Amino acid sequence: MEKWDLGPDDLDPTLVYVRISVFGQSGPYSPRPGLDRLGIAFGGLLHLTGDPDRPPVRPGVTVSDYLTGVFAAFAAVSSLYGRDRGGKGTLVKVRSLTLRSTVPSCAFSNGPWPGTTA
Question: Based on the structure, what is the number of domains in the chain?
Answer without folding.
Answer: 1
